[in-house]
């Protein structure tokens, strides 16, 4: 008997006695695994739409996250860094911010160029917001200088980042 039972067990006679190794078994299991994964992705797309697993590689990108030392902000920070973005985290408490940043850094793989930098500002104070804007401008300029070289000359979106910043709090670049 060489039907489905034989294909799954690897035995020409369909039983465990004298099991013969077969090249069909790994191929069948791989095909079944691939089909299950595709089905899972299709159901996820249909029911959920977007998930954090769909975030692409963000190498060469710069992100700004406020409140990144706990809660949803920390999870956003973690996911951006895991996807290799450079993340500027704004926090009111430097010690808590550094602890959260270190927690995220320790979870990054060795091949991931993602970085986390901590900026301190209380967003209720306009004076601190002005100081934060200056710090962010400086980081964006540094990032834009380094981005084309790091991205193999494809500066595109990063080169536009300084211009996009001009719409925030009346900044001029």
From TrEMBL:
Keywords: Oxidoreductase. Residues 1-20 are annotated as: Disordered. InterPro entries: NAD(P)-bd_dom_sf (IPR036291), SDR_fam (IPR002347). It holds the Pfam family adh_short. SUPFAM superfamilies: NAD(P)-binding Rossmann-fold domains (SSF51735). GO terms for molecular function: oxidoreductase activity. Belongs to the short-chain dehydrogenases/reductases (SDR) family. This is Uncharacterized protein. It comes from Edaphochlamys debaryana. The lineage of its organism: Eukaryota, Viridiplantae, Chlorophyta, core chlorophytes, Chlorophyceae.
């Amino acid at each position: 008997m060489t039907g489905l039972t034989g294909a799954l067990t690897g035995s020409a006679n369909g039983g465990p006695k004298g099991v013969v190794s077969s090249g069909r078994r790994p191929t069948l299991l791989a095909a079944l695994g691939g089909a299950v994964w595709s089905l899972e992705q299709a159901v996820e797309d249909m029911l959920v739409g977007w998930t954090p697993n769909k975030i692409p590689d963000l190498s060469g990108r710069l992100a700004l996250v406020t409140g990144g030392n706990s809660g949803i902000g920390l999870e956003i920070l973690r996911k951006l860094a895991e996807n290799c973005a450079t993340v500027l985290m704004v926090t009111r408490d430097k010690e808590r911010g550094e602890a959260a940043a270190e927690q995220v850094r320790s979870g990054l793989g060795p091949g991931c160029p993602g970085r986390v930098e901590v900026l301190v500002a209380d967003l209720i104070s306009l004076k601190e917001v002005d100081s934060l804007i200056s710090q962010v401008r400086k980081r964006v300029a540094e990032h834009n200088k380094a981005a084309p070289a790091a991205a193999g000359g494809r500066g595109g979106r990063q080169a536009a980042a300084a211009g996009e910043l001009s719409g925030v709090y009346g900044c001029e670049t």
